[in-house]
């Protein structure tokens, strides 16, 4: 009788489970943006399939339908899988559900996305924000900072004036605001220092460290979605589509092309492993292969259709070797 009573206590709505899961994640020190992504992923799933939590069979069928939608991009699939799987694994551990139907599903392979933006296009982009206004100067400085450091949008938008160290020529990303919960110092160039100094000097003195560096005109926090809309508006004026994360990609690719080591790029980007950094290295190697195919001297020297010489004798030892 007592066991059945305890089992009955374990019955929770998905909202109750999610709330407890989020509290658990907060105790672990997970960032606000990651918390938001967990909420968004589960809310999206349950809004599409409101009966999914009614039974184990419903949950299984509807999870597979949700993740198996046609034409879903690998990155979208992987994002949904990771957030839902982590939450459901926690539910199993706490005996809110018996099993996680997607526990053994693997991520799909993602091809590295090549961001093809020329230096000339970037120069034109930097001319678009009106630096005579606070908002224009803010956008200009944020573009420069991202191109200079590869900082994540969420990390940049959380910076406060005390994180800006012009004398040391660096930006400090705190453990509290870093996605990986590891602090790091990012070297910055003179152009970035000048732009950020101008931006900070244009702020009301009363804001101090209470207001982020990259805020709205009224001093409110700027979120990554609003910043994405701003950057899209600027880039459309020069006939291209550039997103905030594209600037991060450009930093990584250009740094490697210009001779930076993969380890230095990994540390600056804040990657915990080399897996993601290797994708940028692979993209640069692909660039070299494409250029080689276009420019190799053998394109002119060798015959277009080389004749195969018929072998009359095969050296078995050489072949096996």
Walk me through this protein's architecture.
By secondary structure, this protein is mostly helical. The protein folds into 2 domains: 9-93; 119-290, Intergrase catalytic core (hpI Integrase, Chain A), CATH 1.10.443. It is built from 15 helices and 3 strands. It has a 3-stranded antiparallel beta sheet, with no helix packed on it. Helix 2 (14-27) packs antiparallel against helix 3 (32-48), helix 7 runs antiparallel to helix 9 and helix 7 (134-149) packs parallel to helix 11 (244-257). The longest helix has 22 residues, at 274-295.
Stated plainly, the CATH topology of the largest domain is called hpI Integrase, Chain A
| Low-pLDDT residue spans | 1-9, 306-321
Q: Give the name of the CATH architecture of the largest domain.
A: Orthogonal Bundle
Helix content: 55-70%
Please describe the topology of this protein.
Layout (H helix, E strand, L loop, with lengths): L1 H8 L4 H14 L4 H17 L7 H12 L6 H20 L25 H9 L6 H16 L3 H5 L6 E2 L4 E4 L10 E4 L2 H12 L22 H13 L7 H14 L4 H8 L4 H22 L2 H4 L14 H5 L1
Antiparallel strand pairs: 1-2, 2-3
Helix pairs in contact: 2-3, 3-5, 7-9, 7-11, 11-13, 12-13
Kindly summarize this structure in a few lines.
With about 325 residues, this protein is mainly alpha-helical. The protein is about 55% helix and about 5% strand. It has helices spanning about 1-10, 15-25, 30-50, 55-65, 75-95, 120-125, 135-150, 155, 190-200, 225-235, 245-255, 260-270, 275-295, 300, 315-320; strands at about 165, 170-175, 185.
